[in-house]
């Protein structure tokens, strides 16, 4: 299906991110992690199949949202079940508050209810429209490149004048 190809980058970005969180928590073998990632990608593809609207990226965003909030997201739970991880174990390994938005052209996440929204993947949209007002999000890409990147542009605004 053409939509399947269109969603591939966004879905693999989201699945790789959750897998990375599990890997960071430790105690899970690489083979299990690989299986988890593949199962999660498959579950997401199936779940999003009829809910992906590249021309209206925000349409269906709530449906596609992956959420852990004192309840395990069923798609993560399903993939974890495939490698024998219980929901209890997942709650120990993953943040207790995690929201992951998987939308056409953008994948972003927030840890904690008041955390800032960090963009994992962003690609220009045909027509050049931005999906969300930029002021409401913080890109955390810099954090992954600490040491290599020059200070971000709004660095000067954060310095406190004496």
Shape: globular
Indicate the CATH architecture: Alpha-Beta Complex
Alpha carbon gap, first and last residue: 60 Å
Work out the helix count: 7
Mean pLDDT: 82
Order of helices and strands: HHHEHHEEEHH
Secondary structure tally: strands: 4
**Which homologous superfamily in CATH is the superfamily?**
Anti-proliferative protein, N-terminal domain
Instruction: Kindly report the CATH topology.
Output: Actin, Chain A, domain 4
Number of domains as seen in the coordinates: 1
Helix content: 40-55%
How much β-strand is present in the residues?
A: 5-15%
Low-confidence stretches: 133-139, 141-159
Find the structural class using helix and strand composition.
Answer: alpha+beta
Strand order of the largest sheet: 1-2-3-4
Radius of gyration: 17 Å
- Sketch the major β-sheet: 4 strands, antiparallel
Per CATH, the class reads Alpha Beta
GO biological process, one term: negative regulation of cell population proliferation
Pfam family, one: BTG
Family: Belongs to the BTG family.
Organism: Chroicocephalus maculipennis
Give a written overview of the molecule.
There is one protein chain. The protein is an alpha+beta fold. It has a single domain (2-120), classed as Anti-proliferative protein, N-terminal domain (Actin, Chain A, domain 4). Helix content is 44%, strand content 14%. It has 7 helices and 4 strands. The chain has helices at residues 2-25, 30-48, 61-64, 74-82, 87-93, 141-144, 155-158; strands at 66-69, 97-103, 106-111, 118-122. The protein has a 4-stranded antiparallel beta sheet. The chain starts with a helix and ends with a helix. One of its GO terms (biological process) is negative regulation of cell population proliferation. It comes from Chroicocephalus maculipennis (Brown-hooded gull). This is BTG1 protein. InterPro entries: Anti_prolifrtn, BTG, BTG-like_sf. Belongs to the BTG family.
């Amino acid at each position: 299906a053409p939509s399947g190809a269109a969603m591939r980058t966004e879905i693999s970005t989201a699945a790789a991110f959750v897998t990375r969180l599990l890997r960071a928590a430790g105690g899970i073998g690489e083979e299990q992690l690989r299986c988890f990632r593949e199962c999660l990608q498959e579950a997401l593809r199936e779940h999003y199949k009829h809910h992906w609207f590249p021309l209206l990226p925000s349409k269906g965003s709530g449906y596609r949202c992956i959420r852990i909030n004192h309840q395990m997201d069923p798609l993560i739970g399903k993939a974890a079940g495939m490698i024998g991880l219980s929901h209890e174990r997942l709650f120990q390994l993953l943040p207790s508050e995690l929201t992951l938005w998987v939308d056409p052209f953008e994948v972003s996440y927030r840890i904690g209810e008041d955390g800032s929204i960090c963009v994992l993947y962003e690609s220009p949209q045909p027509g050049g429209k931005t999906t969300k007002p930029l002021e409401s999000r913080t890109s955390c890409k810099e954090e992954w490149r600490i040491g290599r990147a020059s200070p971000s542009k709004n660095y000067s605004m954060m310095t406190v004048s004496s």
